[in-house]
Amino acid sequence: MTSNSDEALNLSGVSKHYGQRGHLLLALDRVDLTVPRGQLFGLIGHNGAGKSTLFKLVLGLITPSQGHIHVNGIAVGGPDFRAARRVIGYLPENLVLYDNLSGLETLEFFAQLKGAPKTQCAPLLARVGLASAGRRPVREYSKGMRQRLGFAQALLGSPQLLLLDEPTTGLDPSAIRDFYDQLDSLRAQGVTIVISSHVLAELQQRVDALAMLSNGRIQAQGSVAELREHSRMPIRLCVTGTTARLTELATALQRNANHAVLSIQQTSPDTLEVHCAREHKMHLLGLLAPAGLHDLQILEPSLEDVYFGLREKA
Known about the structure:
Layout lengths: L6 E12 L6 E12 L3 E6 L5 H9 L6 E6 L2 E2 L5 H5 L2 E4 L11 H12 L6 H7 L15 H12 L6 E5 L7 H16 L3 E5 L3 H5 L4 E6 L2 E6 L1 H8 L3 E6 L2 H14 L4 E8 L2 E6 L4 H8 L6 E5 L3 H11 L1
Parallel strand pairs: 3-8, 3-9, 6-7, 7-8
Antiparallel strand pairs: 1-2, 1-4, 4-5, 9-10, 11-13, 11-14, 12-13
Helix pairs in contact: 8-11
């Protein structure tokens, strides 16, 4: 079985189970997933959904019970995969570091394991903001500093594919912004990035597409906009105006909206919140446009709203 050369990652019918027949733990169940080259792709799901298992399968650390996996067109576990794995960078959720080594020594150790030039180590420390701490032992590093050091080791060897499992754990807001700036720069260079995170608000405005895993299966995948459409969650319209005008408007909407309005709530004397089905948005905007309002905001459901909405339907 072959994979398209434009695909950085392709999983076809991939399952992974542990145990014996009759006592199987199914970690992944018939997963089909394609990530194009140069994309920032998100994986979301509850603890135990299968995200870390998927990463380990892609790295060849464990073998699938069935199905096929290709990285940059090369079969994982095949005769050419050893060389292909050298262009994969990986940051695990729980990275174990040697406390007695310095940050620079840690990177040099990983560089030797990966066959990457040691000359990359000092510039990578500077890239993640650890230049001044490079000679300090890792035992003196904070959790955020350890996480940045882990990110630096993932960048050793100039990887073409980055797998990042909960990479912003322990980072402060400034470090999180810098981290995503780094990802934007890497993506602009053609690097493909797959990131797993429970912090959905971070991913919402940053990923090109994502997949939602639940109990080992992909429940939904696509762009954030496509997942919103798939979830069919209502849109909120917040309108502001005088109390008298909003009272008139609420009455008019209930009378003329032809079931477009799901609910109406006056959240303050000058604010009305209207929930409507997605397919009725334009009809409702047409009713609101001539209403003489002070302001109108259209609020799409957040990625977190979509996630929980889809989980309820599962």
